[in-house]
Amino acid sequence: MSTPDSPGDPGPDDADSDRLARAFLTRVLEPGDETGGRWIREHGARTVARRLRSGKEPLPGVSTRRWAGLRARAARADPAHDLTLADTAGVRFVIPGDTEWPGPLDDLGDTRPTGLWIRGRPSLRMWALRSVALVGARACTDYGAHMAATLAAGLAERGWVVVSGGAYGIDGAAHRGALAAGGATTAVLACGVDRPYPAGHTQLINRIAEQGLVVGELPPGDHPTQSRFIQRNRVIAALTAGTVVIEAAHRSGSLVTARAAQRLGRHTMGVPGPATSALSAGVHELLRGEAVLVTDAAEIVELVGAMGELAPERHGPVLPRDLLAPGARRVLAALPARRPAALPEIAREGGTSEDDALARLYELGALGYVERHDDGWKLTRQAMVTLRTGPNPG
Amino acid sequence: MSTPDSPGDPGPDDADSDRLARAFLTRVLEPGDETGGRWIREHGARTVARRLRSGKEPLPGVSTRRWAGLRARAARADPAHDLTLADTAGVRFVIPGDTEWPGPLDDLGDTRPTGLWIRGRPSLRMWALRSVALVGARACTDYGAHMAATLAAGLAERGWVVVSGGAYGIDGAAHRGALAAGGATTAVLACGVDRPYPAGHTQLINRIAEQGLVVGELPPGDHPTQSRFIQRNRVIAALTAGTVVIEAAHRSGSLVTARAAQRLGRHTMGVPGPATSALSAGVHELLRGEAVLVTDAAEIVELVGAMGELAPERHGPVLPRDLLAPGARRVLAALPARRPAALPEIAREGGTSEDDALARLYELGALGYVERHDDGWKLTRQAMVTLRTGPNPG
Predict the structure, then answer these.
(1) Full-prediction pTM beyond 0.90?
(2) Structural domain tally of chain B?
(3) pLDDT (average), residues A204-233
């Protein structure tokens, strides 16, 4: 497991100052603030944080009124307290340059998140390598919920991580479908990850945090707003290999996610529905454009799995075993050489919990070491060669 | 109206000999017979007919067994009788070179029909200019039937001719939808046009013959076969500006029509349905390829209307008024200069039946003179300029 640095007590060294400055900036700048992103790129996070705190020198391209608003937020911000609070709540703060930072987010340019607050055992970076977003309407139909759950289960069975927004409707059905299949799922929230939203999904989001990942740009306790929901969608789009829209009316937020995915060069997919359904109208609009029609998980994987760098199992493990985190190495060693094994057996043999073993298995899957096999997991052919634990498969 | 030549009494002139030979060949060669088509192209229909009758010189590239089969059919054929029978039943026989022959069928190359047997008043050539095929499963769902009827009505309201195969399910719903909207529809049969198939659609097909067109390659009395159904689909595909598949299972005959349309460079469209419906699976397969997803008539017309030569209303009338058939000229003269008129008024003013007036209006529509307007018809702006019946619209 890649142990995150303890953010509780920022010392004088650069990394921790940068971490403290970025924690401060997630409290002051709104997610997706492109001007703020440019400042950080041009001057560095610490300089931007210092200027916002001192207030003496307004940064370029900002109105007096906006500068005053940012200054008021800066005056109330207490990043050291936020990091301590997060640490207590089992939340870590990951920033660009950390080993857990997911490279695909850098495609967002100046709207790249300043940092990410994360709950859950797995490495977000590893999980992002083999992940697909399933998004759609909150007020979905039974058909939509059925499709979300079925596709999520099918993706989980193929070793893919299901990413969604934790909302009612399609999002919830997708997360639940992945969990029910003993699979991996990540919820990207538009609020503090310690403050599940919607309240009715508190139990679900806590379960995702236990078995998977809950991720967000907002610092502890912060609340969602309309604009934060919309900005959250770009993170979902950037984090994943592709976005599938399941049900969406015209002008739905899910279409924002899909268009963001398109702009980022990710695969964009849509699940068709009756032409008479207003909740499929937005999906059909998308499918009349560049999006690809999909009806099952195999079709999704066929598309996203075609991206070579995101389907490393075709090319064998991408990281030597010695460079794996100790937790992942232990789970890898727990896998039998020539047959698949079920999760409880792997956890027992690896001397860890099932939740932890699952997190590691998905990381090892992203790295090409293991693959799902019916209800269990097994070593890939390439892994057997690399690990010299089996005969050369020729 | 373009009066078809009387085929009853073939004289010694070339045109009638050719007509007689081709009538003979529709009795002897199966629809879509590519070898037969090549013989006709290379030697002419009369030579091929003579060789088949005499039997002395087998044509190239044909086995002894097949030649014997064709010879047996040839011995039983009586084209003069067929043409007389057809004439009595109100059926005309149209061949390449006739003014009513639809040019788009020539895109079929050596599988071009030898000739077409036609029931109904309108000119097939004119109607084909502004036509769309709606095809799909016989055992369709209520949803499929609803979509077929709705799309057909919407196309009819926009002055487009709905072409289908006269079968149960989607075909029937499409024909009925067009008729119910006071629109134009063409049934392309896989049997003699005097012998409606399926029997349960006798009334519907007779009504189509009254108000529209019933067309086929098979001579009077001939019956449908599996291969004839499949070959019929290429005629539907070639005749129209585009093919819309509404419901189709995997390996459905409607997909054959769609793929033929694709090969011929026609627009191919599909109506989505639930991903859980086996009757939408074939359509979704198509939509994952080159076909365009459509959910209403406006989207269909947006696509097929973009073909310049098939949407002459954008460029004004393509045929001078003096060259119009007398029936069409009379109906054109019956239209008021500055307002739309309903069908009964136009028929009354033009001194003809409503069925005949409708046939002429769709022909005039294909030529860019008139367009549908709510429940009635009006002159196009370009027609008003050309006819000098209104002020220059600038």
Answers:
(1) no
(2) 2
(3) 96
